[in-house]
Amino acid sequence: MLFIIVTLITLLGVLYYYFTRTFNYWKKRGVIGPKPVPLFGNLKESTLRREPIALTIKKIYDQFPNEKVVGIYRLTTPCLLIRDAEIIKHVMIKDFDLFIDRGVEFSDTGLGANIFHADGERWRILRSNFTPLFTSGKLKNMLYLITERGDSFMEYVKDICEKQVEQPAHLLLQKYTMSTIAACAFGVDLDSGMVDTLNKVDKMVFSPNYSNELDMMYPGILKKCNGSLFPKFVKTFFDSLVQTVIQQRGGLPTNRKDFMDLILEMRQKKEIEGAKRQEGEKAKTIQLTESVIAAQAFIFYIAGYETSATTMTFMLYELAKNPEIQEKLTAQVDEVLKRHKGEITYDTLKDIDYFDRVFDETLRKYPIVDPLQRRAQRDYTFPDSNVTIKKGQVILVSCWGLHHNPEYYPDPQKFDPERFSPENEKHRSSGAYMPFGMGPRNCIGMRFARLQSQVCIVKLLSQFRVEPSRNTSLNLTFDPMRQVLFPIGGIYLNFIRR
Questions:
Q1: What is the pTM of this model?
Q2: Which residues, at least 6 apart from 402, have a Cβ–Cβ distance to it below 8 Å?
Q3: Could you give the CA distance from residue 4 to residue 8 in angstroms, rounded to a whole number?
Q4: Residues forming a β-bridge with 285
Q5: In sequence order, what are the beta bridge partners of 494?
């Protein structure tokens, strides 16, 4: 019996040592930070799914208002939280080549070749080749696909709101973004079977699992073990979808001018290459296989439909709570549509410029993807600081913390689109606003996201006004079981015909 007790005590001691062995790392280097908890480091609440990780990191951001950088532990792994907007600009822009990687690699066979998660030269090649897919000209060519789905969506909204004015806004808007992304990415129209499958994919992708925490504790383990962040079903679905679309088009681009057409144009070269970074350097290439195409299709679909649906949900929520802002935006929508004879073109949307302020303020108050992450390519000492991060270590940026910092945004809980007027923006550090990231690795689809959101909101406000319903919460609590920022129970609003 004594032997068993001694063995258990020894085992517990060994485990305690193992899960706390790194916890003096920042203290030895004179870097201030919150006290870590054995095993969990500083992420106990998010790891136990009591709160979203964005809120956990924001609390740390708020806890150290006088520090430019804060030493924290993602489970047992030391990393740095960057608070200072000017240092953030150095990391994201000036010294970007030293922080090119996100540092969340996983198996190529598990969709790891997608442009969001890809690192190093693979990312450079994908980014340089896929960026032209989102130019103004390409988006103009896709606009008809978006407006057609917007018209169909409005017919659906009219029908259901005649029966019940109160609607769950997010579920409603997901129907629009699913259809627009499916059309613009794959050239397909959704049927009930496809919608059911995409809802299943949604739950698998946006419900947290512990792959992220495993990679935090043992950086790089997913790649080494050929693991993935996503279930096999998700990969199989997108592989099959891409193969079907390619077969339907005979492997050649059509005249739809959607994402798959642009990919098929690129595919005819069989491989794509990155830009030469030095004179005489041989360009790096990767094969544009169906698997690589499926990985890009996956990330464009997942990012494009969910982030836009959630952003528009928060936007309508704030418009419902702030009727004077809604009236101002609606008045401009009415005036511009009348001037353009009711036709929604690229020029029409450009003239509805108050939308941009409302959109930007929505993402200021509700940054959907948070925190942002970068991995150091070599040892790096931060400007105006004696703090050094080692090669392979990770830095985090709290968008929520930055966007709610009264130093940059007085009265941060107030919804005020005028924060993004030209005269107010010029007095604020550009490093204090980054819902789409910043620098060369910002969100490649941000212009598409803005475009599809604007089409939907313009069509809605031209025919409806939104109001709080009896089930609209005025104090949102955010869901720890959703990978992106979203309130528990969703948001219910009344959609009233004008």
A1: 0.94
A2: 61, 85, 88, 408, 431, 432, 433, 434
A3: 6
A4: 273
A5: 166, 467
The answer to whether residue 320 scores a pLDDT higher than 80 is: yes
Displacement of CA 218 from its chain's centroid (Å)? 24
CA distance 183 to 77: 42
Residues 6+ apart with CB under 8 A from 230: 110, 111, 204, 205
Closest CA to 238 of 263, 256, 217: 263
Q: Which of 379, 370, 394, 385 is nearest to 485 (CA)?
A: 370
- pLDDT, tens digit, for every residue of 92-141? 999 999 999 999 888 888 899 999 999 888 999 999 988 888 889 989 98
Judge whether residue 30 has pLDDT over 80: yes
For residues 320 and 52, what is the distance between their CA atoms, to the nearest angstrom? 25
Tokens of residue 321, six digits? 């709570």
Closest CA to 305 of 124, 199, 176: 176
Q: What is the DSSP string of 88-132?
A: HHIIIIITGGGS-B-S----GGGTTTSTTT--HHHHHHHHHHHGG
Q: How far is CA 386 from CA 30, 68, 357, 389, in A?
A: 9, 11, 38, 10
Closest CA relative to residue 193, chosen from 201, 205, 184? 201
Name the token pair of 184: 């613009």
CB atoms within 10 A of CB 326: 20
Residue with the two structure tokens 């930007």: 360
Q: Angle 305-308-312 (CA atoms, 0-180°, nearest 5)?
A: 135
Give the rounded percent of residues in the chain with a pLDDT score beyond 90: 70
